[in-house]
Write a structure and sequence with these properties.
It contains 23 helices and no strands. The chain has helices spanning about 5-15, 20-35, 40-55, 60-75, 75-90, 95-110, 115-130, 135-145, 150, 155-165, 170-175, 175-195, 210-215, 220-235, 240-255, 265-295, 300-310, 315-330, 335-350, 355-370, 380-385, 390-415, 415-425. Helix 3 crosses helix 16 and helix 11 (about 170-175) crosses helix 23 (about 415-425). The mean pLDDT is about 85. Part of the tripartite ATP-independent periplasmic (TRAP) transport system.
Length: about 425
């Protein structure tokens, strides 16, 4: 079976609304059966599923998701937003900048882009509208703020990339810190420019130090937990899986000490963590089936030979990979993009001598942009659905933020040291 036929089968199954994981698994299994025969193909499938699901590093996925669910059940979202608004809401555009700050906290605590966007739309959007912020700016801020969960550790997307490519997840987490802060800073700059040049972001209520301090008391333990989880990974004290277990314990202790985590919330939190984990592990396993087919048919090797003989510069090839990922991001979610693209894109990038950690952050940043680009910017749909604002209005408000995101991506590509500085210090 040729690669073109395999891609066609995947495309047809996806058009029939089959989840991308099953589409890739079925196509890869069919290709292996034709290539090797039914019995050898079954042996390969058995080995792939065992090797994939028995990997210790996968333990980090359910634990980080469970930590996020426990903190969400403990009303962390509302408290983080209130604290940021108390400190920044009094200046022009301050509420929007506060929403970005809260999004950074939520990204580190929740790790889910759509969940972060939904939480911000439910809490920060009404507050901005109450202070006469324009619908366009308010929905754009909560949409773009949610994308931070893709690159800010502990990002589930980075975990999946690390598992698919056998790259150090600890180094990926540390490498995502500076790009995440750069992105948040870029968002704040865009907001301030809009606030100074238009009337879309007026000033909020006067600053009250006592109120700001009181609202921050409940957020401080969560900030300490974030720093501790990332710190034990950075210092080599614990692996990402062990740090995730530490994070779950910390989330439980914070919820109990603040009396914000009810016993009845534990069941739904564990249930959501299990459902999300099963989905992600299925995607990873089916992606490995697809990759095994590519390996047996030497598609990857042939692609590398074609790239080597093409005469194109490494920069041109990388630009083609980035553009392809951007286009895929307009129509697919991040995990589907990684499972489809990494079996081919990662070996090509490594053959050109690129660092796997740097490439992971660039890929993650690229698929992050797809969350806010039409026609299928998932975060824009979430913001529009929860706020009642027309989708076209949300996308128009996102234009300056998309430009900013592309500028940050370009900087990260041109200056790899920004991404690799912290991991190289580990």
């Amino acid at each position: 079976m040729s690669l073109a036929m395999l891609v066609l089968i995947v495309a047809i199954l996806m058009m029939l609304r089959m989840p991308v994981a099953f589409a890739m698994g079925i196509a890869g299994a069919a290709g292996l059966a034709i290539q090797l025969g039914p019995r050898p193909a079954l042996a390969v499938l058995e080995r792939v599923f065992l090797d994939t699901t028995a990997s210790f590093i996968l333990v980090a996925i359910p634990l980080f998701i469970l930590m996020a669910e426990l903190l969400t059940a403990g009303q962390v979202t509302k408290r983080a937003i209130n604290a940021c608004q108390a400190w920044l809401g009094h200046v022009r555009g301050g509420l929007a900048v506060a929403a970005v700050g809260a999004s950074v906290l939520l990204a580190a605590l929740i790790g889910s882009s759509t969940a972060s966007t939904a939480a911000m739309t439910a809490s920060a959007y009404p507050e901005m509208r109450r202070h006469r912020y324009s619908e366009r700016l308010a929905t754009a801020v909560v949409s773009v703020g949610g994308t931070l969960a893709v690159v800010v550790p502990p990002s589930i997307v980075l975990v999946v990339y690390g598992v698919l490519t056998e790259t150090s997840i600890g180094k990926l987490f540390i490498a995502g810190i500076l790009p995440g802060l750069m992105t948040a800073t870029g968002m704040a700059i865009v907001i301030k420019v809009i606030a100074q040049t238009t009337d879309a972001a007026p000033a909020g209520e006067p600053f009250r130090l006592g109120h700001a301090v009181r609202t921050s008391r409940h957020v401080l333990p969560m900030v300490v937990l974030i720093i501790a989880v990332i710190g034990v990974i950075y210092g080599g004290i614990a692996s990402p899986s062990e740090a995730a277990a530490f994070g779950v314990m910390g989330a439980v202790l914070i919820g109990l000490s603040q009396r914000s985590l009810a016993f009845r919330s534990l069941g739904p939190a564990v249930s959501m963590a299990v459902r999300s984990t099963v989905m992600i592990v299925t995607i990873i396993a089916c992606s490995h089936i697809f990759a095994n087919y590519l390996s047996f048919t030497r598609v990857t090797q042939n692609l590398l030979a074609l790239i080597d003989s093409s005469g194109l510069s490494h920069g041109t090839i990388m630009a083609l990979i980035i553009v392809t990922l951007l286009v895929m991001g307009m129509f697919m979610d991040q995990l589907a993009i990684l499972s489809l693209a990494m079996p081919l894109a990662f070996p090509a990038a490594m053959a050109m001598g690129y660092d796997p950690v740097w490439f992971g952050i660039v890929v993650t940043k690229t698929v992050e942009i797809g969350l806010i680009t039409p026609p299928l910017g998932l975060n824009a749909y979430v913001a529009a659905g929860h706020s009642g604002v027309r989708l076209g209005e949300v996308f128009r408000g996102l234009i300056p933020f998309i430009i900013m995101e592309l500028v940050v991506l370009t900087i990260l590509i041109l200056f790899p040291t920004i991404t690799l500085w912290l991991p190289n210090l580990m």
